[in-house]
Amino acid sequence: MNDTIKELIHGLKDKLVDYRRNFHVHAESGWTEFRTTSVIARALEDLGFQIKMGDQIICKESMMGVPDDQTLEAHMKRAVDQGADPELVKKMKGGLTGVVADLDCGKGPFLALRFDIDANDISEAQDDKHRPFREGFTSINPNVMHACGHDGHAAMGLVVAEILSQIRDRLKGKIRLIFQPGEEGVRGAKPMIDAGILEGVDTILGGHIGFQAARTGMLICSTDKFLATTKFDATFTGEPAHAGGAPEQGRNALLAAASAALNLHAISRHGQGASRITVGTIQAGQGRNVIPPNALIKAETRGETSEIDEFMFQRARQVLAGAAQTYDVEVDIKLMGKTSSGQSSPEIMEIIKNNGQKIEFFDPDQIIDNTEMRGSEDYSHMMTVVQEQGGKGTYFMIGTDLSAGHHNFYFDFDESCLAPGVELIVKSALDILS
After folding, report:
1. Are residues 291 and 366 in the same domain?
2. pTM, 2 dp
3. Could you tell me the residue range of the domain that residue 322 belongs to?
4. Domain identity same for 265 and 409
5. What digits encode the pLDDT tens for the residues 217-263?
């Protein structure tokens, strides 16, 4: 069977790179992945998977950080202009992007494989130092690029699907492929979970190109200590007034936001684990001689556990309310993203490790059992939900040389990692389902 899988992957290597570069050229950020979703959905249908889209897989009430309707309509039109299926795009109206695809192989375990598909809000480098520019596959969409490797993840997911469809007679159980939108900003997992996509799942696998596995040939088999996080916007609304003639008639939203920003960073750290808070953006005011009636803070909390993150967020809410009261302004807090902490299951780590050791690409001296994430990833919420219902999961990292760090406009990775990544996932799925 190993020889069969290797032959199948060898025959699909060019297709794997073509998929990756196709997605890279047509990069789309969270809740606007209309073309990406369309390409994936059509390919999965052709392979015999049963696909679900739109409100079948996304709970609209749980969506966070969704662009306004005008922006969504513009991205839908752009997707169709770039080759998306218009009928499929209609199913995603409102930003309901992403695909869930099932392959039923009879009685047995229920395995889910998760692949994220969104890009970053970054303008890609446009010079010869950048390989995608030299070789003609930079993003054609303004201010958005695949600067984290999700184009590679989506490509791997489609080739995994193709191979699994060809060896389905060797599988026992059900496979669910989850092509998740909105991972950046941790926006996509919760709406998918709330729509029920993980009900009955016994095992879930997810992973990433790079991160701590920053050299080609490395393999990290499991990840712990994902930081739970809450992303939020706080909008302060006051009253404008003439700054010289009648300042007493104004209510200063800028000062409320500035006070809040300082005091948010004064929230005590938590004694039971790592905690974070960051105000990343303040936008305020209308003119030099106008009492500022408006201000916006974009901020986030993080915690080593979901409980610590919730502690930080609730304290943040208190600080924001206090600043608003002090300056007699209104404050509205809007969730823009949220995910939980997570720990990988040792049993599934062993499956990844055992298969990695049999794949020549991975250096035996660079196969690592476990690492700590010390950051946030939307997958952790999915893995935690599966574990809470009695299942297991892990998050692995596939090593690759990087041209620049993740979320950098010079980001690129060594595409030779893609085929071994597919082989690792397929063989691990085969172990779980055979």
Report:
1. no
2. 0.95
3. 228-339
4. no
5. 999 999 999 999 999 999 999 999 999 999 999 999 999 999 999 99
